[in-house]
Amino acid sequence: MNILITGGSGFLGARLARTLLQQGKLSLAGAAPRAIERITLTDKAPPPQDLAADARVRHVGGDLLDLLTSKSLPQAGTDVVFHLAAAVSGECEADFDLGMRSNFAATHALLESCRALGTRPTVVFASSLAVFGKLPGRPMPDPIMDDTLPTPQSSYGIQKFVGEQLVADYARKGFIRGRSVRLMTVSVRPGRPNGAASGFLSGMIREPLAGQRAPVPVPADTPVALASPARTIEGIVRACEAADGDWGPLTAINLPSLRTSVGEMAAALEQVAGGDAAALLDWTPDPAIQKLVSTWPGNVQWERARGLGLAADASFEQVVRDYVRENPQAVKLALR
Fold it and tell me: What pLDDT, in 10s, does the model give residues 50-96?
């Protein structure tokens, strides 16, 4: 089996690649598992050293849209495409053209390239809960269901919803087997901050554990729907493996979410690392981030994902402890 991961050098892309390589095989739409022969990672940045050293991994560097336009990707024989590459929310609000190029044009070009293969590859598209949003002057739908009408309130959310619809139509026409999954806010992400408006939801845990101050730009009672990196990867892989009958309609599904609040996240940090960690949080309002975050749903239901055997994280405290276990080099404070 040959697999392409766009955004393959990023945090989720690299973690997905490691998961697949460790499994060594993958099932497509309920069929018998097949051995993974090649994983192609495409990204502007090189892959982590452990992935670059694996003989089954190939890296194709460059701008995704340029690579697709030049017909460098995907290769003939590609069975699965995990499309994770995207400009993130804050970037798309600041630079409309960047978002349209990275999230709309590149997604369309990728689907056209998969169509040209003529082999109906499976395409798993990483969408986002940002496709949902609070319309001005109207209450937020509560709860958000798999079939709640998306009303995105950001360029990023609109671009992701357009991507969902493109995947559904290319699948309806038989060009691909399409699976769109709406990712929850992923926390805790290791490494450096990115340009996502939701980035503080990782930074408020990651930075204090490293002994650094971290901004919290929204009120403590702000509701959020979260998923750990591990649960997120489980959902992405399961979308590929599910049989057509189990998957159901071609529309996107909500991946499992842990319903919590920013204040409860801070409390979990204190439970794990004590008051010294919590004291490093700077509760400083940022009106621009507050405005965007206030349009995001906090109560997201995920019945279709539950039907596929997926589950949410049990608690945010456990998410923090898992981050500590997986990233001991990034933790400088004494833990409880």
Answer: 999 999 999 999 999 999 999 999 999 999 999 999 998 889 989 99
Are 127 and 164 spatial neighbours (Cβ–Cβ below 8 Å)? Answer: yes
Distance between CA atoms of residues 140 and 286, nearest Å: 21
Could you tell me which of 93, 126, 96 has the C-alpha nearest to residue 6? 126
Phi, psi (degrees; rounded to nearest 5) at 292: -75, -45
Choose the catalytic residue: 11, 125, 132, 156. Answer: 156
Q: Find, among 88, 30, 82, the residue nearest to 233 by Cα.
A: 82
Are 218 and 273 in contact, with CB atoms under 8 Å apart?
A: no
Are the beta carbons of 8 and 14 closer than 8 angstroms? yes
Confirm if 18 and 51 have CB atoms less than 8 A apart: yes
Paired strand residues for 186: 227
pTM of the model: 0.95
pLDDT tens-digit profile of 19-31? 999 999 999 999 9
Per DSSP, the residues of 236-267 read HHHHHHS-HHHH-SSS-EEPP-EEEEHHHHHH
Q: Which residues contact 19 (CB under 8 A, 6 or more apart)?
A: 233, 237
Q: Is 156 a catalytic residue?
A: yes
